[in-house]
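Thread: Modeling a multi-component assembly for a lab meeting

Hi all, long-time lurker, first post. My supervisor asked me to bring a structural picture of a complex we are working on to next week's group meeting, and I have zero experience with this. I have the sequence lines for every component (239 residues in total). Could someone generate the structure of the whole assembly? Inputs are pasted exactly as I received them:
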Amino acid sequence: MSLLTLDRVSKSFGALKVADAVSFEVAPGEALGIIGPNGAGKSTLFNLITGNIAPNAGRILFDGADVTRKPPMSRVAAGIGRSFQIPQPFSHLSVFENLLVAANFGGGHHGPHAAALCMDILERTGLGGVADATSGGLSLLQRKRLELARAMATSPKLILLDEIAGGLTEAECGALIETITSIHAEGTAIIWIEHVLHALTSVVERLMVLNFGKMLMIGEPDAVMASPEVKEIYLGIDV
Ligand SMILES: Nc1ncnc2c1ncn2[C@@H]1O[C@H](COP(=O)(O)OP(=O)(O)OP(=O)(O)O)[C@@H](O)[C@H]1O
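Re: Modeling a multi-component assembly
Sure thing. I ran the full set together rather than chain by chain. Output:
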């Protein structure tokens, strides 16, 4: 059984088709990477999955239910968590408080249980030492970790990661990969949009290529990257 199914999902902004009959499935616990040139429609695909935008056609199924017309909050409650390309913490709150907000409102966790859950997630995401720090003062790596932690605080079955490795040094990127790998190993499914290809392929089992809103290819990462069509799209781009 698949955890997430997109069935011929299409979306246009005026004359611009940003999702063109996209169909794919993600199995429970699977990690899928998404690559594609700027403007290919990758973030739009996430917005369709989270319910932030509605498709013009097609269906989205999650965990056995049709969520195509469901609002974002009910999809979070169903188990779809998300990190954003640009970290968006409440900068005046502490790291712990930021997580508690996500656990309360996104995950429906309350009281001592929510606090214990948040402390556990902070440890697992490498933020245990800065729980009481104001999130506005965090380094870029810590802010990326907090994005990951906030997505996890909603107890997701599926986490959507949007360019979480961008802007990090090699060492920082390696540290973040370790954390993402451990979350994946615990059984959480992941869909990860990323331009840092080596980070992506060190975690995902399958890779999808989007171009002009169309799914060009999906499959085992090495096979996808070896395809002449994919090579042509990335010609001259250091991936
Ligand atoms: N709300 C919107 N209204 C109109 N056009 C939009 C809207 N959101 C996105 N677009 C356009 O849709 C196209 C796809 O955008 P999207 O952000 O999904 O691409 P992307 O693959 O994530 O790109 P990047 O790698 O640069 O983040 C772009 O041409 C963008 O300008």
